[in-house]
Specification:
The chain contains 23 helices and 2 strands. By secondary structure, the chain is an all-alpha fold. This is ABC-2 type transport system permease protein.
Amino acid sequence: MSPPRAPGFLRHLGLLWGLRLQIGLNRGAGRPNRLLAVATFLLSSAPALFFGLVFFGLMRWRPVALSNVWPYFILNLLCFVTAAVWVTWPLLSAGVDDHSELSRYAPFPISPFRLLIASTVASLFEPRALVFYAPLTGAALGYASVNGLRAPWLAALNYALFALLCAAWSRAGLHAVLNVLRAKRSAEIIGGGFALFLFAASLIPPIDTSWLTAMSEAGGMEALDMSLIIHAAIALSRVPSGFFGDSLGQLAHGRVSIALAESFGLGVFALIGLAVAYVLLLRFHRQSGRAGPARKESGDRDPFARTGSRFRTLVTREALDLWRNPRARLLLSVPFVLAILLKLLSGRALFEYLLGQSADAWLMGGLAVYGAIVISSTFSQNTFAYDGQGFAVFLAAPVELAEVLRAKNLVQGGAGLGMALLVSLFYRVYFGHGAWVDFLCAMASVAALVPLTLAAGNFLSLYFPVKFHASLQRRDKLPLVASLLGIVAAALGSMPFGWALKLAGKSGPTLQTVAMIALSAVLYAMVYRRALPLALRLLEQRRELILRAVTRE
């Protein structure tokens, strides 16, 4: 009897998308769940239509359409920004563990190369990917409708190659981060990489932004030296991500041969990205059978020897689990990396031009709030499973689950506030700007955010528990509904910060601004205190359901 034939590529692609759908529904089944999946997909993809229409209209706007410079600058800038966001999004969004097919398919009869291709193609049609390239899509269609293209089929080909280029390097970045998390010395690698990045950034001269001041003093955009925009457009067109934008301009002028050469360049760099991603995927698969990153033994030192009480013991255990989590260390470094990039690109000068004396409050507070959101969305929204089999241990131990949840909330909230403190101090030292009022605004903003994200995280953990794979230091993908609810909670928690600084205007925040944010923090703390007893009651009722969800195979 001959063995059954191996599934074809399209079948593997269907299985991969089916797996993602199953994960997104948290293994739900039936017509209501399928309808919910479609509704959430459309809802999360809806911003793509808005962004596409906005940039389509921008390219058809008469001052832009009649210009010989602005269309090329906008297209090339959108190409660069789209590629940069797409490639770095798995790290910036704390989504490095969402692609669980890397390990799920490791023991299956599918070659790593086919898995890479199927996974890359699947990533092109995710809701976030649709949002990523929607502005560029709208701008390209708007440009084509105004200027007309010599070979439209070649423009479509270059668009597909550009998307493949972004997806390929996004997979390469994702696989690199996952390999770092799986490494035995992930903490040293992350810390060393951060120090090296900080050193390298200090050697690169910041971008000259004196033209912003000159333009402001001269009376606005009319006084802008267009040679700056021209040089910027040319520079952006010479990097691989800019080949697509430049090819549209070449086709508008009838230069098909140059557009073909840029097609070749897009294809070559996309293949290089796929090759790098493939090598990193093979490395990940070789390590996926290991029991996880080795942890240093603490010797004879017992961290629980002087805890004194059961609750303090739980808090100490939770803090140690969070500190030893490689992914927590990775996420802790993200706001600092963003701050370094901000200085390297002279972003503060741009914000100062746009926001006046409120620029430091926006930047310092924004980085602190972002760091707190990343920590809360990663850990508080999966509070019963991010420590592996920890919940099963708590069920077997003679402790009240109410104390466990309080300890987790205390540690996660303290981590968010501690991260805000470090980010704010780093900003003040690294940039040399930011008054104490800006610092108070940043801390008050995180103090307002943390209670609401903890309250939302408690209920999301109760109703959407997902399994954590301790051997791989990753979890299953959080259901899309839970992700959207978490985004809503983070937005509500960040609103006091945004409203207060918007009222402050360009003159900068004052003590009244700090008082407004602090009052919101008190109100959100009251919401948390009122919601906690209900969460504790539901925890006792749903303990077995949660246990089955976080320990299932």
